[in-house]
Amino acid sequence: MPKGIKKNKGNEVSAHLQKRFAEYGITLPQKEHKVVKLDLTEPHQKYHLKDGTEVDGTTRALVYVPKPALVHWGAKLGREGKSPDKELKTAGRIGTIAHFLCQCDLLGWEPDLSDCDGDEVKSAQVAFGAYRTWFEQSGLRPVAVEMQLVSECYRFGGTIDLIGLDENEDLTLVDFKTSNGLYESYDFQVAAYATLFEENFRRLPIRNLLLVRMDKTKGVHQTRQLTSWKRQWEVYVALLRLAKRIKDISAWQACNKPLQAEVVK
């Protein structure tokens, strides 16, 4: 069940939309004040089909998208004598903390970051400040936060950061980023999230996709909106097929490796 929160923009949801939400068991509960501790050692979220089969998360297929900006960034770090792997892990933890702060803000939780690195928390708090500025200007009323869904049709899962409702009661799917830019692969990612949502809630169409980058050094935000995403979804489907094919080939090679070794010998 998606985690919902109380509307915070002061307008009531129409009877028509309330009926649609009720059809899917979606509720908009009050914010709940509680202290929640972030554990950065927790394993990544796993996704399963109804029959128990484990499937990949949305971002797994995106590893096959060329990322020239990441290559240049890694080369720059190398020239500076820094470890790209170490810096990438640090950036990942900062992103996780920032996302957690956004989630706590939306759900009314009090974040406990006592087990996190102090410098990483400071950077995440800068990014969180960018989120707060964006959210106050967005006019969106949150409907669901950290929504975990699985596609039985396409066999992948994902977690949507935020589903928001605008003043026209149209649904916007929001994905938060703490990277140094808004890259093309993110468009494929949110297109996949939109399909996940609409497969599970067919009578609740997504009208807009919104990427929100929260700068972790300057505290400013950057957005990119998609009002149509057919091409991006087609690219993602191709990436899914590529990922499956590579996984099948890897499995075949693993099964046949002893036989190949025996022939060579």
Taken together, the total number of domains comes to 1
Distance between the termini: 56 Å
Please list the strands of the largest sheet in the order they lie side by side.
5-6-7-8-9
The overall average pLDDT, rounded, is 90
Count helical runs: 6
From the alpha carbons, calculate the radius of gyration and give it in angstroms. Answer: 20 Å
Class based on secondary structure composition and strand pairing: alpha/beta
- Dominant shape: globular
List the helices and strands and how they pair.
Layout: H1 15-23, E1 35-37, E2 47-48, E3 54-55, H2 68-79, H3 84-107, E4 110-112, H4 118-138, E5 141-151, E6 156-165, E7 171-177, H5 184-200, E8 206-214, E9 221-226, H6 230-264
Parallel strand pairs: 1-4, 7-8
Antiparallel strand pairs: 2-3, 5-6, 6-7, 8-9
Helix pairs in contact: 3-4, 5-6
